Amino acid sequence: MTGERGPRALQRAETRRTLLRESRKLFAAQGYAAVGLAEIVRAAGVTKGALYHHFDSKTDLFRAVLAEVQEEVAVRVAAAGDAQAEPWDQLAAGCRAFLEAGADPDFQRILLVDGPAVLGWAEWRALDEQGSARHLVDALTTLVEAGLLAPQPVQPLARLLSGAMNEAALWLATTAEPGALEDTWAALARMLESLRAE
Amino acid sequence: MTGERGPRALQRAETRRTLLRESRKLFAAQGYAAVGLAEIVRAAGVTKGALYHHFDSKTDLFRAVLAEVQEEVAVRVAAAGDAQAEPWDQLAAGCRAFLEAGADPDFQRILLVDGPAVLGWAEWRALDEQGSARHLVDALTTLVEAGLLAPQPVQPLARLLSGAMNEAALWLATTAEPGALEDTWAALARMLESLRAE
DNA sequence: GGTTTCACATACCGTTGGTATGTCAAGTAA
DNA sequence: TTACTTGACATACCAACGGTATGTGAAACC
Question: Which residues bind DNA (chains A, B) (predicted)?
């Protein structure tokens, strides 16, 4: 049974968590290519044998880390959306939460920069789809069905918005310009408004 | 004088061009990380010594390739824009040309996927700025000054649009959906329209 | 309580990016 | 022409990397 909890299973789970936590810190700080497995296992206090007992490859480890980060972002976006009553406000709040999530370095480097390059764009896209991007598609679909959004294919629109927010999040993280977040949000909000049904 | 053209300089230039051409093909087809220097020099018919005589590192070679690709895209975008008389049409034509440039695999993989990961987002951004992104900022600035675009900070807007188009270009390249380009363009055009001064 | 399983540790390997050095023709000055 | 220098590579080599094959000892099972 998977419900069993012996000391063995606990140890295993903890080792795995440690590996994920330490590699995530290193990947976020230095980038996937710049951090070696030796550095990861040293930080985690285990050996390469342990790492390869839990993960198939360095790429597989990165995939697990990325999924973790993405899940966190998705939760934040969904929470911000659910806090609003009106569908339109839900979309706006989710988008804004996504932009603000860009302040997290893990989010930028792991998810946006290294993700597509390490996993390939196709796989990255698939993971993105079942992460935060799914909420975006859901929200847009709801709006179209409710007649609040001009009828149109949702997929291209979601891609445009997703890309816009990804890039904006990266830009916001590196720019020192004060009010950049508000300016960006204003421009994005205007774009969203333009999609409203008439 | 740099204008001198002996057999030496010619040979040097040709070797460099061959290196750039072959590595570009390989980088585009397999991605930066998956292609080794051995494969590159074999394709180019030279040795690693020649490569390191022309470039400081594998990263430096990639940087040169990326700059070349980016220049080509910038030329295409600028040409499409210049073909239009009205400032607003120039922006629209440039954006559309950019989207269509996404059909080129070199463009996708080298410029959009591997670029930020290999060079780091900051350097990639700087290169992007002096490439096609510059034309976008120029066009937007012109429109604002001409009173055709609602007065607003141009930088955030340019980032949003640039990101939207980058992502859309990648999506268009992988989707089999017919009419995807037109749907995407329609959504993008609508966004652009929303920015018009009233 | 003997056996099996499992979660690692140890030892090792092929390949990779990078470097140090060698080589020989093209350029230069007498 | 000749002696010398420069430059465009080729050759040989290295440390580090991701990955694998094998060893080990405690926990789980019968």
Answer: 36-55
**Coil, strand or helix at B103:** coil
| A57 interfacial to chain B (CB closer than 8 Å) | no
Residue at shortest CA–C1' distance from D17:
A36
pLDDT of residue A176: 86
Query: Can you give the residue ranges of every domain in chain B?
Result: 1-55, 58-194
- Out of A109, A112, A171, the one facing B159 most closely (by C-beta) is A171
Instruction: Quickly name the fold that domain A1-55 has.
Output: Arc Repressor Mutant, subunit A (1.10.10)
B14 closest-nt by C1' vs CA: D8
Give the CATH number of domain B58-194; options: 1.10.357.10, 1.20.190.50, 3.40.50.2020, 2.60.40.1220. Answer: 1.10.357.10
Q: Does A182 touch chain B (CB under 8 A)?
A: no
